[in-house]
Design a protein that fits this description.
two-stranded parallel ribbon, 7-stranded antiparallel beta sheet, 8 helices, 276 residues, alpha+beta
Length: 276
């Protein structure tokens, strides 16, 4: 499978979030000696959260540790739900994407911008994104809108060359339907690729959220952007473009003087399943 598992996206998102080093309570300042004396000795110093926790505790006070642990669990649940939604949307896009308008001359098929078409990612993401609360709805919509725009701009801009070696010389007036030589998706280029890198994509998500009061919005959205971007890079490197079928005339074929000639102004297209 060209698409990494959900856990891959989730792990990279969690790793990016941990790098923010968020501690709860935020900006904690000890109020004085009475704070520790106001609770039983057993609650003044307890075991802290584990190394894999998304959030750290300001002190080993029971309440600080429990707060960091509880909110980390909630946040992990949301990040996993979003990772699953993004992963599902990517899988659907790969299954339904097609290629059109490839121009074939000889052994070369030229894919031009606008030739890769697929379903919009935004609605696909929202179909399975966590949206049980108003906050989850806002974050999910921000992620979906930013990813949809960046992904659409990227795949509409894809261009490059597909190979058809046997069409360089065809013995006949018309080339039989011919599949391309398998090509790694990453060999195609798009002027809009930078928008799918982690930092620009995260910034786009923050703009879509448009809530300056949302606590930790930037690290949460940047984490999802990092996980998605890393998955996109893996997808590009592992996805093959196959079965883009070319046909076309061979105007130079003129036996007995010319018994084989190249295809000229042929065309090629790939149906669903051409991205494997």
């Amino acid at each position: 499978m060209p698409l990494p598992p959900i856990q891959f996206l989730f792990d990279h998102a969690c790793g990016a979030f941990r790098q923010a080093g968020i501690t709860l309570p935020v900006d904690w300042q000890p109020p004085g000696s009475q704070f520790s004396l106001a609770m039983p000795p057993a609650q003044r110093c307890v075991f802290g959260v584990g190394a894999d926790s998304l959030l750290r505790q300001a002190t080993l006070n029971h309440y600080h540790v429990q707060t960091a642990r509880d909110i980390s669990v909630q946040l992990e649940k949301f990040l996993y739900g979003m990772a699953r939604a993004l992963h599902t949307a990517l899988g659907t896009w790969l299954a339904q994407a097609v290629m059109r308008g490839v121009v074939v001359n000889g052994s070369v098929g030229e894919l031009r911008p606008g030739g890769v078409l697929g379903p919009s990612l935004g609605p696909l993401i929202l179909q399975s994104a966590p949206r049980a609360t108003l906050q989850e709805e806002k974050y999910a919509c921000a992620v979906a809108k930013a990813v949809q725009r960046a992904w659409q701009d990227w795949h509409w801009g894809l261009n490059g060359v597909l190979a058809y070696p046997s069409l360089a010389l065809v013995s006949g007036p018309q080339a039989a339907p011919t599949c391309n030589t398998p090509l790694i998706l990453g060999r195609l280029v798009s002027s809009q690729e930078p928008a799918l890198e982690a930092d620009p994509l995260g910034a786009a998500m923050v703009r879509e959220l448009n809530d300056s009061c949302a606590q930790h919005a930037q690290p949460v959205l940047q984490a999802l952007a990092a996980g998605f971007s890393r998955t996109w890079h893996e997808l590009k490197g592992n996805t093959q473009i196959i079965n883009v079928v070319a046909v076309g005339p061979v105007p130079g074929f003129s036996p007995p003087a010319v018994c084989a000639a190249p295809v000229v102004n042929g065309h090629a297209a790939g149906e669903t399943g051409c991205f494997q």
